[in-house]
Amino acid sequence: MADFRSLEVFYWVAKLSSFRRASEKVNTTQPAVSQRIAALEHEYGTLFERRSRDVALTERGRLLLGFAERFLALQTEMSAALHETGRTRGTLRLGVSETIVHLWLSRFIERMRATHPGIGVDITVDISPNMQAALVADEIDLALLVGPITLPSFANRPLFSTPVAWIAAPGLLPGDEPLSLGALLHHPLITYPRNTSPYVELRDLVLQENLLPSQIHTSASLATIVKMGVEGLGICVIPPAVVEAELRAGTLRVLPAEPQLSDLTFTAMHTKRPAHHFVADAARLAQDVAETWAAETWAAGR
Length: 302
Known about the structure:
Blueprint: H1 4-16, H2 19-25, H3 30-44, E1 48-50, E2 55-57, H4 59-82, E3 90-96, H5 98-103, H6 105-115, E4 119-125, H7 128-136, E5 142-146, E6 154-162, E7 165-168, H8 181-184, E8 189-191, H9 197-208, E9 216-218, H10 222-230, E10 235-238, H11 244-249, E11 253-254, E12 264-271, H12 278-299
Parallel strand pairs: 3-4, 3-5, 8-9, 8-10
Antiparallel strand pairs: 1-2, 5-12, 6-12, 7-10, 7-11
């Protein structure tokens, strides 16, 4: 019967497709990894196809992987149940969209500190495609990004949706008459980077209307986009929720534009693999915080 350590080693070889990388992940030697895999294959049959640069699961290996994930998840659950949450120590590697930074990230950090006082949070602010890649590469544990994203072995928790609008300095396009896409395209547009959903939708909207492409400025920094908008350098295509202070101060306004833009929908995404139990719990906390923020925003009529 396989022990938990052997199943853990097998799990990481399967996920990383490498004996060497798995040995680094579980802090042991490559010969030790090979020995454990050999023992498992002696008991259960061939689990991996050896290739020149990596290994791949056989059909029998894929079957064992499902059981290994369940065993290791149960071990994690058992450990969490038998230890006080406050005694848990570790680091949550968090990837987060800058949009969320501007809305409710501080609330989430406060909830994490109260619920898991022994857990530090290492925050990386990035665009959603980069965070998805970081999750797959095991560079972060949890991503709060635009989604959901359907990938094997990953879980999504819905967070919230927020509208996207055409926003500009008051003097750039004065008046309250509805603006056509053609009128908007007389000015530069400023939005998220090219591999993000807002940019792709904007580009497709222009192409579908068979209009001449507008000058589109992009930035991974939401603060930069907002500053450019305030200074009258173009029309921002961003959620109004992130510029509430500027809207109240009158340095920006939502334009009465006819073209409707899709909402940005955010999700908390993490691997289903057995890990520190607080990763899945952190996703649940993020969902609670996001739902509370959304309810307050709706109640305030914003």
